[in-house]
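ok so i was messing around last nite and threw this chain in just to see what happens. nothing serious, just curious
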Amino acid sequence: MADRKTGGGQQPDAKGEASADIKTDASAKMERDSFVHTFFKKGAEFTDELLRENDRLRKRLFDLESENAALRTHLASDEAIRELLRKIEYLEREKEQLLSHVREAERNSSHLFTRYSEVEEELSNLAHLYVASYQLHSTLHLREVLRHLKELLTQLVGSRAHAFYLKDGTELVPIASDGIELSRLPRLAIHAGSRKEEDRGSRDRTGDLIERVFMTGVAHIEEGELSSAPRDQPAACVPMRIDDAVVGVIVIYSLLDQKEQFLPVDYALFKMLGAHAATALMGALLFANSNGRFPGLEAIDAITRNVGDDLK
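result:
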């Protein structure tokens, strides 16, 4: 009875143990299921997180590739700009060189043009001097010689009033004038002490100037602006020579309004007139004294003999 009791008492324990085991297995299964569920859940979450991170990295990679492409484009653009700048600098240097060549060519052209103008002016002056010399010696008639002298002084020098003085003994005698009455021109004594004291004190220094030019043989020609020249004396006095002897004076009292100053061609013309006007006037006077007759053969033979004797 006791065993049955015991046995009877043991069966409920086995059932209890079996029940406990069952409970334990169920609990373990639940825990395992819970663990598996949690594990898969966390795996899924981790997978989702990995997928999101992968997407983020892909997006970041795409952005970086875009930035890289943009940078490459920008670098290419900068290089193109630098190349353009180098090209511009090269073109600027080439432009400066071309401008320098152009300026040098302009200076050379200006120099050549100036030289051409000077040569042209010199040729014109020589032509005027040739014409003047030719006209002076183209005739022995006093009227024609005086007309040529008047034309030369008026057209080439711009004279408004002038006169010609020739030496006659101890005086300078006005023989012709233009623009001023010949009767108003005085004779001028040329020996010392002959001038009247009242004339020497006169404000009109014309007589003194003509006398001085004749005595010294040095021409008086106003320099610079003629508008500021003294009004009480001629603008120019030019000695007339035959060989080395001064035989008279060309006096230019006034000039045309458009004549502002004497130019180099005027000085050359004065020099030519000083050398040729006297011979032309003297030849015309001698021809007039001979009543227009040319020397005969006897006179020519005598002159030829005298010249031959002088050359021996």
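not much to say yet. The CA atoms of residues 4 and 10 lie 9 Å apart.
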